[in-house]
Amino acid sequence: MMLGAAALAASAPAAAAWHRASSAHFVIYADESPDKLREFATRLEKFDKAVRQVRTMNDPPMGDGNRLTVFVVPTVADVQKLAAHRTNMTPNLAGFYQGRAEGSIAIVPKRSNDTKMGDFADQETFFHEYAHHLMFYDLRVATPLWYSEGFAEFMSTASFGKDGSVTLGKPALGRAYMVDDKSTFPLERMLASKYEKLTANEWGALYARGWILTHYLTFEASRKGQIERYLQDVSEGKDALQAAQAAFGDFKVLDRNLHGYVGRSRISVVKVAGQALPVGPVAVEPLSRGASEIMPVRIRLKVGVPDSQKPALAQEIRAIAAKHPADPLAQVTLAEAEHGAGQYVAAEAAADRALAADPRLIEAMIFKGRAIMERAGLGEKGAEFAAARNWFMKANKLDPEDPEPLMLFHEAQIRDNGRPTANAVAALHYASDLAPQDLGLRAQSAYQYLRDGKLAEARRALAPIAFDPHGGSYASMARKAMERIDAGDGTGAQAAMRAGN
User: Fold this and answer.
1) What is the per-residue pLDDT for 177?
2) Measured between alpha carbons, how far is 245 from 260 in angstroms, rounded to an integer?
3) Cβ proximity of 67 and 26 under 8 Å
4) How high is the pLDDT of residue 118?
5) Counting beta carbons within 10 angstroms of the beta carbon of residue 226, is it exposed (0 to 12), middle (13 to 18) or buried (19 or more)?
6) Phi, then psi, of 138 in degrees rounded to 5
7) Pairing, β 26-31 against β 68-75
């Protein structure tokens, strides 16, 4: 998980001009002017539409709960402080993404030494991670690691024309020296998709070689349709190396072709015309005084802090929220902080104050339900799982496409009765479909399919986990479970998932 611990270097000053921008796929918070924030949101929407068009993805309507929330912090240094206790943090980290059913978030800096709002620092990192975010939503095919990273690199170098166009597929120059590095990562090894531990150099070569192979298969006319065939075969359970041989033919020939492609003086790109990328209205509104004051600590809360720091963070949030008892964002932020600190009565009280200020605030409904569920789990008088489920159902009624209330409804049913009802099982699977980027939720869905004897459905749920580039132990567990499924051993697949969890 991508978690952070430290405070932002620059807390919101008294005159902070925090605004919220809301568009079709993003909710963005920034201490920035409305015009610049609207420009930024428009750029992100154009990128989203361009990627969907190139990948021929559907674009269903999204509610607030399933849009990507982007927090814009002042500088790259603030990004790094938020990510301070991540074990895989790199010295040059300039932005990160967390995908989860509770609401996916991205942290980006407003500026570095040579960038400004709307052309933010290290936008390639954001576009790379958002490409992964979108790939999770394409449930038609599984994506092996080399293609997942190659595709994300392909999209990460997006540029925006004054005519409204978006150009994709420009070279990822930071890895250019590795695109033809056969010794570090031979083509056959890459296509086999069996690599548990990689060195830093091997990771770099995988990104670079994955990018050039993705680029070549996308633009080379004689290879038309091969990548689609390969991905389909892998998705249906065919061995990755066998699927590659069937789709691409002789690997030595492919390697020679790639070498020649690298040596070309000019490289093709995809330019999506501006008129093909209509962006709907972007609503920008100022935050209240209370919401502006609490925003820097809310960002820390949403990123996450170690358990040992949760009580101190909750105390910091209490001090701010106490000054704004009728501010819904301040109070729902307090509800989340109290819940994280294990103060469930206080969490419920804060959620009640948020709901008194805004009776349709879904986040407050969720944390009221969460607080009741935890109190019921502790056996506290007056707290019942049924009451918690009722709040999750209220939240679901307001936003049926928000995965979190569905996930929590299932959890409350399990904790209450030990077994889910058919309705709770359906809620679990739909929540996973709505938030495929949440690997833990996908694993729960897959395990339920296995318990119900639905091996094909379980395999489809596990495949994206198995190939996830940052899946870690989840990915290893998924691969082992898929091996048992392919052998027709559903019981063994369940055992593999239990052992790997």
Assistant:
1) 67
2) 20
3) yes
4) 45
5) middle
6) -90, 90
7) parallel
- All structural domains of the chain, each given as residue ranges with its CATH number in brackets, are 1-170+274-286 (no CATH), 172-268 (no CATH), 293-500 (1.25.40.10)
Residue 274 and residue 173: Cα distance in Å, rounded? 25
Length of the chain: 501
* Region of residue 33 (phi > 0: left; psi between -120 and 50: alpha; otherwise: beta): beta
Write down the H helix ranges in 304-402: 310-321, 328-340, 344-357, 362-377, 385-398
The pLDDT tens digits for 249-277 are 999 999 999 989 988 878 899 999 999 99
Write down the residue that tokens 């005084």 correspond to: 289
Contact 318, 88 (CB under 8 A): no
The DSSP code sequence of 200-246 is HHHHHHHHHHHHHHHHHHHH-GGGTTHHHHHHHHHHTT--HHHHHHH
DSSP-derived letter for residue 7 is P
Q: Tens digits of per-residue pLDDT, 15-34?
A: 568 999 999 999 999 999 99
The stretches in the chain having pLDDT less than 50 are 1-14, 113-121
Residue from 73, 152, 65, 66 nearest 107 by CA: 73
Single out the residue of 243, 61, 235 nearest to residue 140, CA to CA: 235
DSSP H or E stretch at residue 30:
strand 26-31
| Residues in CB range of 481: below 8 A, 6 or more apart | 446, 450, 458, 462, 493, 494, 496, 497, 500
SS3 content of the chain, % helix, strand, coil (to 5): 60, 10, 35
Report the greatest alpha carbon distance in the chain: 74
What tokens were used for 133?
């975010």
422-430: list long-range contacts, CB under 8 Å, 24+ apart: 425/452, 430/403, 430/406
Q: How many CB atoms lie within 10 A of CB 180?
A: 16
Q: What tokens were used for 49?
A: 């539409």
pLDDT at 91: 60
